Amino acid sequence: MESIVPKDHAEAVALFRSQVVGALCVRDLDHGELQVALAALSEQRFRPPRGHSTRRYSRSTLARWYYAYKEGGLEALRPQGRADKGRGRDLTPAMRTLLVAIRQEHPSASVPLILRTLVSEGRLQEGTACESTVRRFFQQQGLDRTSLRAGAGGKMRLRWQAERPMDLWQGDVCHGAPLTSGEPVRIHGLLDDASRFVPVIEAMAQEREVDMLAVLVRAVRSHGPPGALYLDNGATYRGTTLALACARMGTTLIHAKPYDAPARGKMERFWRTLREGCLDHLGPIGSLHDLNVRIWAWLDAHYHSAPHGALMGGSPKAAFSATTRPADNFDESRLRAALTIHERRRVRRDSTLSMDGEDWETDLHFLAGRLVTVSRCMVDPQEPPYIEHEKKRFALHKVDPIQNASRPRSPTNRDETHPARTAFDPAGALLDQQLGRGRRPGGDSEDRS
Predict the structure, then answer these.
(1) What is the pLDDT of residues 304-313, one digit of tens each?
(2) Of the ranges 90-104, 165-179, 377-391, which is most confident?
């Protein structure tokens, strides 16, 4: 058997004190004899736990240990720490509130930086609080860096999931190893929260909003729009086009709180499964097509049909297909309407206008200088934008300055034959009136001289 040791330093100190005064407690001593014994004991030297040297203890200290041991036993000899130990007595309530607000708004700021800034701004007197005091205070509040990195922050977390498939989709982007050509890899994916089924996944070279929309279109075409879409706070998911498209489809767009990765744990866990089962074993890949076909093969042949721990051994595909969904009349026309954006643009004098950072040209030259509504359907980003005029659509085309150099122009005013000019001479009419001359019906004046 292993030897029994004190459970903590306080119990070790209590044991040491009991050994110092324990011999007196078993003796029947009157008050005078006790004082003599305590005086003799105070002349002896003892080595306390964790002590590097021996020391003496006064009669009052030994008497306090003696009576405490007789009344309360070993537990009464445990040293009692300060009631406010580790609470930063030098931190005022206002300073505590300020420190909490700074750490919550700027979680990456270090304690030395916070103290140095407060001292420089005159909000804290130098030397009032040391770094260790502030660190202990942050730890008590659940605001230390370890807790913040873990996403704890003192908040209560519960395991949750959507009630039925299609109620909630989660979306994210995974950064993969670059291709052999050096081209970056960004894997866009959507995950059904209730079934862990992946409606769509595709590796692309960028993570723009237009790339996210392309992935969403593929998923909606195959399964219809979800009840809600749960995304992070990246610029990819914060665009106006995505928000408007979700609103038109009847999908609630939800963004996770910043710096709260555990809130999207299901998506992070899927990326880990994808890496361990597929991406980490691919080797050099030369094109996005080669990467995608391997990801899709792993998804269809393994992941969707494999037992999933969160589904009590069921597979994502079976769980996604088991729930019957009500019939929906969401078709291609509604999808295109949801993903069509309309913007006001002024046509330049050369019949061009700007859209999505590109110059486009219209054949309706009479619209030059006028404000028009330009529409573009993001279902197919390669589809050119168009102008609606008198309930008709007129497609725009990209400007080709070289081709325009040889295009014929419309006739100008100088090339046209003007009709006979209409007689109109206000000054001449007044002169004729002064001279008493009349005018012929044709407008010429009569010579009355």
Answers:
(1) 999 888 888 8
(2) 165-179
What sign does the CA torsion over 363, 365, 368, 374 have?
Answer: negative
Query: Looking at residue 413, what is its pLDDT?
Result: 47
How many angstroms separate the CA atoms of 118 and 424, rounded?
82
SS3 393: strand
> Residue 140 pairs with which residues in a beta bridge?
none
Of 63, 52, 68, nearest in space to 29 by CA: 63
Q: Which two three-digit tokens encode residue 160?
A: 């949750």
Q: Which of 233, 158, 157, 226 is nearest to 195 (CA)?
A: 226
Cα distances from 141 to residues 86, 100, 151, 154, in angstroms, run 12, 8, 14, 7
Distance, in Å, from the CA atom of 114 to the CA atom of 131, rounded to the nearest integer, reads 10
Closest CA to 161 of 263, 236, 82, 73: 263
Tell me, what DSSP letter sits at residue 18?
A: H
Task: Name beta bridge partners: 170.
Answer: 191, 230
Q: For residue 170, what is the enclosing H or E element?
A: strand 169-176
Helices 93-105 and 111-120: angle between axes, nearest 10 degrees: 120
Query: Which DSSP string do the residues of 302-371 spell out, in sequence order?
Result: IITTS--GGGTT--HHHHHHHS--------HHHHHHHTEEEEEEEPPTTSEEEETTEEEE-S-GGGTTSE
Domains plus CATH for the chain? 9-77 (no CATH), 93-149 (no CATH), 169-322 (3.30.420.10), 339-404 (no CATH)
Kindly report the length of the chain: 449
Question: If you average pLDDT over residues 285-291, what whole number do you get?
Answer: 92
